[in-house]
Amino acid sequence: MTEHIEFSWVYDANPHDVFRMVTRLDHLEEKAEYLGHRGHRMLELREREGLFRSITQRQVDVELPRWAPGFVLPRNTITQTQLWGAPSYDGSRRYDAHIEVGGIPVTIDGEGVLAGVQYTATRYDIRLDVRSTFPLIGRRVEKFVAAQFEYAINGEHDFRMLWLGRRGQQQHSAWGS
């Protein structure tokens, strides 16, 4: 049993700039606040030996379906690890993702890719697989957790659009000076 989710967006910035945005401490902290996540902590955010590692931890509140209270907590600790590879010639990059949800027997693994589109834009693709080891209701747990992640990841996209919009406004005001 596995629930597969995919996302794809195009941003009006080159891959280098999108990578810098999604790995900036202030971006990550503001994004957590925007999404209503609590207790956001950076456990690691650094490059070493050509790999960039980002590990975040946060508490996420969810509204539980009737069947879930015995199996899922309304507040869960999420620990997310992204291991980014080195950039290609145009700044494109990919990462492997591993996400742990405290208190729920699921594993979430996948990847993200930043790909250059004609040197001025970036396509950001995310693919995740949600797997549960719960006997009997594992499929329900997978679907529930996948739906929660779909909602959150679409919220992350909305935040990135706001962030890029602020950057564009700052550039325009600097040009107008």
Structure write-up:
The protein is of the alpha+beta class and 177 residues long. It has a single domain, classed as Alpha-D-Glucose-1,6-Bisphosphate, Chain A, domain 4 (2-Layer Sandwich). Helices cover 33% and strands 42% of the residues. The chain has 3 helices and 7 strands, in the order βααββββββα. It has helices spanning 15-22, 25-35, 138-176; strands at residues 3-11, 38-48, 51-61, 75-84, 93-101, 106-117, 121-132. Strands 1-7-6-5-4-3-2 form a 7-stranded antiparallel beta sheet, covered by helices on one side. β6 and β7 form a beta hairpin. The termini are far apart. Mean pLDDT is 89; it is low at 171-175.
Q: Main β-sheet: number of strands, strand sense, barrel status?
A: 7 strands, antiparallel
Q: What structural class should be given to the helix and strand makeup? A: alpha+beta
The named CATH superfamily: START domain
End-to-end separation: 58 Å
| CATH architecture descriptor name | 2-Layer Sandwich
| Overall tally of structural domains | 1
Which CATH top level class fits? Answer: Alpha Beta
Overall morphology:
globular
CATH topology descriptor: Alpha-D-Glucose-1,6-Bisphosphate, Chain A, domain 4
Order of the strands making up the biggest sheet: 1-7-6-5-4-3-2
Which percent band covers the strand fraction?
35-45%
Number of strands: 7
**Can you give the mean pLDDT?**
89
SSE pattern: EHHEEEEEEH
Poorly predicted tracts of residues: 171-175
